[in-house]
Design brief:
Blueprint lengths: L2 H9 L12 H6 L10 E5 L5 H8 L3 E6 L2 H11 L4 E5 L2 E6 L2 E5 L7 H4 L4 E4 L8 H14 L5 E7 L14 H8 L3 E10 L9 E9 L1
């Protein structure tokens, strides 16, 4: 999905991917990343996710990346804080105490702009990439985060019933995209309420630097 299409989904309120409560897998497994309070957590394609409220509540420093300015405006409204806005390179940085959101194209970010990262939480970004773009995405995020550990959530479903996004990701693809840099453990798998009406399972992956 292009950035323009993603922005349009927010404008049209076609945001069924937005969860109104913290993700159950984040709550259950985030501590396995070993991040201490104050640690910096990168959340690509963050939207206005309630997961970021949960991370902030745990004392973590949130670094988000999102192309939709509408989503981030709503995020800060819901947090009840007014962000400081500045231009950094090709994107905007919206920042407040404990949170920095880069508003713009994730692929224009650099490790220098993002700064140190202690962990990556990826619920919505990897699964949003078409198959021919997932390798480049994975390499880019690894570089942005300096190879920090990741908590990755994927979907598995009959893709003949829906083309995505979110896309169905076979287990072997997680290993092929990330195995060169990480030891990979599937730590949970559970049926979801469905993805856009299609029955699906969620896979939860812990990616630990080798």
């Amino acid at each position: 999905m292009s950035g323009i299409d993603w922005i349009r989904r927010w404008e049209d309120r076609n945001i069924g991917f937005h969860e109104g409560v913290p993700n159950v897998h984040l709550v259950a497994h985030f501590d396995r990343l070993g991040v201490q309070p104050g640690g910096r957590v990168l959340v690509p394609f963050c939207g206005k996710s309630v997961d970021m409220h949960w991370l902030l509540g745990g004392g973590y420093h949130v670094i988000g990346a999102e192309i939709s300015e509408m989503a981030i405006s709503e995020l800060f409204d819901e947090l009840g804080v007014a962000p400081h806005k500045s231009n950094v390179g090709p994107v905007q940085l919206w920042a407040a105490d404990g949170i920095e959101i880069f508003v713009g194209d994730l692929f224009e970010l650099t490790a220098e702009l993002v700064g140190p990262v202690d962990a990556v939480y990826d619920r919505a970004a990897f699964v949003a990439q078409p198959e021919d773009e997932r390798g480049g995405y994975a390499e880019h995020v690894i570089a942005l985060a300096g190879g920090a550990p990741q908590l990755l959530i994927t979907y598995s479903y009959d893709q003949s019933l829906m083309s995505g996004p979110p896309f169905s990701i076979p287990d072997e693809e997680v290993h092929s995209r990330y195995g060169g840099r990480y030891a990979i453990t599937k730590i949970d798998e559970a049926a979801t309420g469905g993805v856009r009406g299609v029955p699906a399972d969620e896979g939860v992956w812990l990616l630990t630097p080798r």
